[in-house]
Amino acid sequence: MKKVTINTLIAWKQEGRKFASVTAYDASFAQLFEQQQMPVLLVGDSLGMVLQGKNDTLSVTIDEIAYHTRSVRAGSPNSFLMADMPFMSYATPEQACQNAAKLMSAGANMVKLEGGDWLVDSVKMLTERAVPVCAHLGLTPQSVNVFGGFKVQGRDQAAAEKMVADALALEKAGAQVIVLECVPVALAEQITKSVSIPVIGIGAGNVTDGQILVMHDMFGISANYMPRFSKNYLAVAGDMREAVSRYIAEVESGEFPSPDHTFN
Ligand code: KIV
Ligand code: NA
Predict the structure, then answer these.
(1) 15 C-alpha vs ligand 1 centroid, how far in Å?
(2) How many CB atoms lie within 10 A of CB 16?
(3) What is the enclosing helix (H) or strand (E) of 193?
(4) pLDDT, tens digit, for every residue of 127-180?
(5) Which pLDDT score, from 0 to 100, does residue 223 have?
(6) Are 31 and 75 in contact (CB under 8 A)?
(7) 112 annotated as a binding-site residue
(8) Helix/strand/coil for 60
(9) Integer Cα distance of 249 and 20 in angstroms
């Protein structure tokens, strides 16, 4: 696979070409994903749930994300690799810089932070210091105790308007990608059209520029529950490599996510 960079993703947004991405935590799966031409990988703090069996992501540490980032980079030299900043690792801009450095030196191309316009100073500080940033909006799982559960976000008018404003503020601060999780499809479409940076959705309908799934959900093997917006491609394809290429093809064609996997 040819090396994928932020410029590749921006060009795809401009061309209206949809792209797939998936989480990865180790070298073997990272290699399999790259062999199937998966352009973007994320070392997600979802590893607290799917690898460690916890009920949420809050106990994941920066050193754990760095460890898995090194493994994924070893297996996939050419994907665009994002890595999650875990809970409380970016409480201040200074902490964000110190911790992001660990992920960048482990091989990440971009770090992902959960939150709205309160992140503006951190995003500026990181991007000015050459750390590319992805901002994660909507259902931000590190806020599960604030939300009172893993619930769809942005359902009422005020919350939807706030999310659009957050996306614009984060883009202006220097964020180069947005992840939108569990939001109504109309809101996802509005945000995707409002910003010029690529938007990657999960539980946000087929209107975003890219899609992402947790790899264990894509294979239907998660220790936790299977979210409604996910699809078990291994069950459909019967083979891991075939499952991955089927997922990529269905994202590119717009077939996934279907209305069954979408919130209105
Ligand atoms: O941790 C994760 O896997 C994520 C994706 C679901 C976007 O943040
Ligand atoms: Na995450």
Answers:
(1) 25
(2) 7
(3) helix 185-194
(4) 999 999 999 999 999 999 999 999 999 999 999 999 999 999 999 999 999 999
(5) 82
(6) yes
(7) yes
(8) coil
(9) 8
- Give the active site residues: 181
CB 23 within 8 A of CB 233: no
Tell me the C-alpha to C-alpha distance, in Å, between residue 229 and each of 32, 164, 253: 24, 22, 17
3-class DSSP state of 258:
coil
Q: Which residue has the tokens 């050459």?
A: 130
User: Under CATH, what is the fold of the domain 6-261?
Assistant: TIM Barrel (3.20.20)
**How close are the terminal C-alpha atoms of the chain, in Å?**
36
Model's pTM, two decimal places?
A: 0.98
Q: Domains of the chain: which residue ranges?
A: 6-261
Residue 102 marked in a binding site: no
Distance 51 CA to ligand 2 centre (A): 13
pLDDT bucket at 226, cuts 50 / 70 / 90: confident
Q: State how far the alpha carbon of 246 is from the alpha carbons of 114, 182, 204, 254, in Å.
A: 29, 23, 20, 12
pLDDT tens for each residue of 20-38: 999 999 999 999 999 999 9
- Do the beta carbons of residue 210 and residue 19 sit within 8 Å? yes
- Per DSSP, the residues of 135-168 read EEEES-GGGHHHHTSS-----SHHHHHHHHHHHH
Q: Phi/psi at 259 (nearest 5 deg)?
A: -55, -30
